[in-house]
Amino acid sequence: MKFILNIALVLFPFLSWSQNFEALKLNLPKNNSEPENVYFKNDTIFLDDKKCFSYMLSHNVEKNGLKMRNYYEIKDKKGDLLFTGNISKTNEDENWTDRITFVLLGGKIYKNAAVVGRDKLILNLVANQVIGSDCSIHAENLKLFFDKSNENIN
């Protein structure tokens, strides 16, 4: 019985996103290091049970003169900033949007209606061979991911 409970506790984080998540299909080059599992726990992102990234969410902050209701940062294990995001919607009738800064691409701004929030960003990056099981980011695939799926016109 304890074994079944442990399995349920391990799988629960996956069940919460797997039912509602469909990755962008960009056909990026395979790198043979895609993680087998991804989960999110408070301020940490785990790949194959390894702590790979940290996550910080702040509300009602000002960054570079912009007021942001839901601002987040994703950093690597060394503390280097990788991505920032600003999740918002202008009125109750609109869907949530996320304006993501790809720090590794020189601060380029990314938007895609299917990629809103930390979970969907990381899951899409993993599914498209950008993030490897060793917590690495494959720079060429990151650039291809950005180029193929960015809906930002500015």
Describe this structure in words.
With 154 residues, the chain is of the alpha+beta class. The protein is built from three helices and seven strands; from the N terminus they run αβββββββαα. Strand 5 and strand 6 form a beta hairpin.
Q: Give the N-to-C terminal Cα separation.
A: 55 Å
Strand order of the largest sheet: 1-2-3-4-5-6-7
Q: What order do the SSEs take from the amino end to the carboxyl end, as H and E?
A: HEEEEEEEHH
Largest sheet: 7 strands, antiparallel
What general outline do the C-alpha atoms trace? Answer: globular
- Show unreliable segments: 1-19
On the 0 to 100 scale, the average pLDDT is 85
Count of extended strands: 7
Question: What is the topology?
Answer:
Blueprint: H1 2-18, E1 38-41, E2 44-47, E3 50-63, E4 66-76, E5 81-88, E6 97-102, E7 108-110, H2 118-127, H3 139-149
Antiparallel strand pairs: 1-2, 2-3, 3-4, 4-5, 5-6, 6-7
Give descriptors for this structure:
alpha+beta, 154 residues, 7 strands, 3 helices, single chain, disordered N terminus, globular, 7-stranded antiparallel sheet
In short:
The chain has helices at 2-18, 118-127, 139-149; strands spanning 38-41, 44-47, 50-63, 66-76, 81-88, 97-102, 108-110. With 154 residues, it is an alpha+beta fold.
